[in-house]
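Continuing the batch. This is chain 6 of the set; chains 1 through 5 are on the previous pages. Same settings as before, nothing changed between runs. Recording input and output for traceability.
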Amino acid sequence: MSTKIRLIFSNSKLPLSPFIRWVTWSDWSHVAILVDENLIIESTLSHGDVRTCSLDEFKSRASEWAIYDIDCKNPDGVVAAAMSQVGKPYDWTGILGIGLHRDWQEDDAWFCSEFTFWCFDVAGDPKIKKDAIRRATPQHCYMIAGPMLERS
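Output for chain 6:
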């Protein structure tokens, strides 16, 4: 049984990526869950929702990317939580709230790092305090990452 889950981090080729990194003090502007060797679950600003895509599609949108292992008590639970949210909208007000230091998080919408930490929490393996999930950035996900496995 696996005790790890993989996260993939990226910076986009789009001009908003440097701004996101600057506002959030992050090395990365996006984070997603790597389900298997070819399937990603993510919440994206550019697509406006939680969705699945192939690893190749994910990499094609990135100016750079890296895959890291995260220790996890319940990887199957993390994936099940993530899959249950496919089709939910992007959390526009929540992401805006981070920049303005306001709690405008939506309970039925997600931005990438909030979505990732929520999945761990629902799976019974919280990585940060529940009340901090709404303020999580890709950098917070990166700070809990284990060894880097692959990088562009």
